[in-house]
Amino acid sequence: MKRLISILLAVVMGMYFADILFAQHPGQSISEHPGKETMLSADKVIKGIKDHIDKVTKANAGYFPITDSEEGKDLRLKFIKVHEDKVSYIKKEDAYFACVDFKTDDGKTTYDIDFWMKKGIFGKLNVFQTKIHKKDGKPRFTYQDDEIAVCPK
Q1: Which of 56, 115, 60 is nearest to 82 (CA)?
Q2: What dihedral angle (degrees, nearest 10) is formed by the CA atoms of 108, 65, 81, 122?
Q3: Average pLDDT, the chain
Q4: Tally of CB atoms within 10 A around 123
C-alpha cells in the first residue's frame, strides 16, 4: 500500500511540476487543431501591421524602405495610416491582408502598399509579402478572386 501511495504521489508531483514548466502565457496557443479556423480580429491585424511598420521604421531612421520595381528605385516612405476598412482574411492563403498609405519625405507622392501576413508561432503576425498597389491613387494591379491581376495600361 505504501508503494502505491508513493507511486501516486510521484505521478501527481510530476504532473504538477510539468504544468509549471510548460505553462502557457495568456492569449498564446501552442497547439491549434488542424482544420480549425482561428480568425483574428481586424484590430489584431491592424496592431500587427503597425507593430511591423514601427519595427522597420525604427531600424531605418524613421522611414519605411521599399523598392519600386516598376520604376527601378528605392523609396524611403513615411507611414500615414492603415486602411481599417481594407483588412481581410484570405482563406486560400490562410493569410491576412492590410492596405497601408505612405508618403514620400517631401509629401508630394502617396503610395498605397499592400501587406500580406500570416500567423506564426504563438499566433503572432508576420509579414511575408509587401507590394506597391497604387502610386498617387493610380493602381498598378487589381485583385480577382484573391489573386493579383495586372491592370491594363
Answers
A1: 115
A2: 170
A3: 77
A4: 15
38, three cell numbers = 482561428
**What's the maximum distance between 2 C-alpha atoms anywhere in the chain?**
86
Pick from 4-8, 18-22, 67-71, 86-90 the range whose average pLDDT is largest.
67-71
122 φψ region: left (φ > 0), alpha (ψ -120 to 50), beta (else): left
Q: Which three cell numbers stand for residue 153?
A: 495600361
Provide Rg for the chain, Cα atoms: 23
For residues 20 and 3, what is the distance between their CA atoms, to the nearest angstrom?
26
Q: Is the predicted pLDDT of residue 121 greater than 90, yes or no? A: no
Answer yes or no: are the C-beta atoms of 113 and 66 closer than 8 Å.
Answer: yes
SS3 content of the chain, % helix, strand, coil (to 5): 30, 40, 30
Taking alpha carbons only, the member of 121, 101, 99, 119 closest to residue 46 is 99
Query: CA angle 136-87-122, nearest 5°?
Result: 130
Our measurement of the distance from residue 143's CA atom to the centroid of its chain's CA atoms, rounded to an integer in Å, reads 20
